């Protein structure tokens, strides 16, 4: 339960990964989750474009029918596996009630994913976003999200984020983990920056991966409906249905900027140099390459 002033219990850890306390309390239910072979799992590190890919996948599933995508707020359309806030049903409870084929989502790193997803060779979407924009977005999200710790100043948050002391832990481990298994399992590995640059091409990839074939006008509608401007104005995607004592959009809107390169407005020259050095060390030996500006 929320405490007075909107302060929530501090994060706790599972195998070194900080997670909301209620998620940790519910951990055995999450690990025992029974995936089905036709489950589709949307996987992201926080603030990488989860809502964007969710809306895209749903629009494809609904054949471009805008009204059907209005049936519920985005956070209720795809069960969030590790979600727990008793007495509400947990993400696992919601998934169990959902008819197949299910679209689910998670922010877990590969090493914490319930084993049944690997055993059933499920399909995974992974959306990666460049580390600096992710950090900036997460900072503003923690400022307005009272279910996560107060981020402190930008200078303080920089240190917290690069050391992975944030919910769902280190961006570096998360991205590397999913990148490394992308060819061993059925992973459609997408980049936020690519979707921004050429949404139609990336949406077509998503469509094919889902085994769907939608005609040109439907595809064009999906491109239009999933722009930042449309999703910012859409109450079913902009999180305006969440109570202010959880998400205070007067501090920072959930649909904040939706751009590539906002990091340049936040990182000082010294922070940027330090970040590049940390990045080089942590990502050494990885072939992944990010676009930092468009
Ligand atoms: P910013 O804070 O940089 O604006 P998530 O859904 O994983 O929490 O990610 C949220 C980030 O994705 C926010 O980034 C949000 O604005 C951005 N976003 C959401 N929908 C988008 C869209 N249609 N186009 C571009 N960015 C989008």
Automatic annotation (TrEMBL):
Please give one Pfam family short name. Sulfotransfer_1
Taxonomy, superkingdom:
Eukaryota
Q: Which organism is it from?
A: Catagonus wagneri
Catalytic activity, EC: 2.8.2.-
For molecular function, the Gene Ontology terms on record are: aryl sulfotransferase activity
What is one process in the GO biological process aspect for this record? Answer: sulfation
Main localization category: cytoplasm
- Give the enzyme's main class according to its UniProt record, as a single word: transferase
User: Does the record's keyword annotation contain Repeat?
Assistant: no
Cross-referenced Gene3D superfamilies, in alphabetical order? P-loop containing nucleotide triphosphate hydrolases
Give the UniProt family note. Answer: Belongs to the sulfotransferase 1 family.
Catalysed reactions, semicolon-separated: 4-ethylphenol + 3'-phosphoadenylyl sulfate = 4-ethylphenyl sulfate + adenosine 3',5'-bisphosphate + H(+)
Q: What is this protein called?
A: Sulfotransferase
Q: Where in the cell is it found?
A: Cytoplasm
Single GO cellular component annotation? Answer: cytoplasm
Q: Which UniProt keywords apply?
A: Cytoplasm, Transferase
Extent of the signal sequence:
none
Q: Where is the Sulfotransferase domain?
A: 37-286
InterPro entries, sorted: P-loop_NTPase, Sulfotransferase_dom
KW Cytoplasm (keyword) present: yes
């Amino acid at each position: 339960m929320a405490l007075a002033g909107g302060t929530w219990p501090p994060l706790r850890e599972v195998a070194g990964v900080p997670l909301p306390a209620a998620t940790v309390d519910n951990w055995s239910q999450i690990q025992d989750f029974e995936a089905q072979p036709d489950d589709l799992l949307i996987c992201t590190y926080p603030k990488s474009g989860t809502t964007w890919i969710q809306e895209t996948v749903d629009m494809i599933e609904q054949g471009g029918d805008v009204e059907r995508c209005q049936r519920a707020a985005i956070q209720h359309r795809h069960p969030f596996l590790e979600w727990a806030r008793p007495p509400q049903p947990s993400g696992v409870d919601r998934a169990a009630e959902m008819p197949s084929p299910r679209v689910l989502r998670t922010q877990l790193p590969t090493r914490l994913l319930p084993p049944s997803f690997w055993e059933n060779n499920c399909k995974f979407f992974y959306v990666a976003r460049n580390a600096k924009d992710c950090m900036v977005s997460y900072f503003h999200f923690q400022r307005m999200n009272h279910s996560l710790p107060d981020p402190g100043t930008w200078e303080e948050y920089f240190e917290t984020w690069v050391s992975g002391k944030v919910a769902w832990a280190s961006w570096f481990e998360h991205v590397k983990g999913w990148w490394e298994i992308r060819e061993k399992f059925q992973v459609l590995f997408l980049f936020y920056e690519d979707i921004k640059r050429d949404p139609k091409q990336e949406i077509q990839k998503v469509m094919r991966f889902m085994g769907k074939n939608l005609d040109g006008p439907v595809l064009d509608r999906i491109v239009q409906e999933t722009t930042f401007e449309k999703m910012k104005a859409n109450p079913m995607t902009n999180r305006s249905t969440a109570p202010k004592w959880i998400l205070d959009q007067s501090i920072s809107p959930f649909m904040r900027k939706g751009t590539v390169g906002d990091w340049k407005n936040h990182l000082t020259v010294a922070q940027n140099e330090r970040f590049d050095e940390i990045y080089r060390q942590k990502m050494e030996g990885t072939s992944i390459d990010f676009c930092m500006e468009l």
